[in-house]
Write a structure and sequence with these properties.
Elements (H helix, E strand, L loop, with lengths): L13 H5 L3 H15 L3 H11 L8 H8 L3 H12 L27
Helix pairs in contact: 3-5
The chain binds zinc ion (ZN).
The site of zinc ion (ZN) has 6 residues, from helix 1.
Length: about 110
Amino acid sequence: MNETGPTIHQCACDECKAGGNAAIVRYHQQVNLFLSRLNEPQRRWYVGVISQATDSPSDRQLSLITGLDEKTIQRGRHELAANLADAPAEKQRQAGGGRPRAEKKMPR
Ligand SMILES: [Zn+2]
């Protein structure tokens, strides 16, 4: 499907569709670029964080911007509120995530 790296979500918000505000378009592109490099829990936590900014768009808007479900964004927020208790910091691996760890081991 994509020849060059991970799929980056295209923002579907009205602002970007209209294309009138270059700063917003660029910001949303960068949010999606960043999200494309995160794993699944990290994506919802990041969007959970930005959803709580004082001038943050609504969850519905954020869903259009990031492609994440509104429910996923809410979940991220709840997990943050619970101090990410289900995802201990010392382990890079996320609870519930099925992906094997892509950790580099130094060859000796
Ligand atoms: Zn946008």
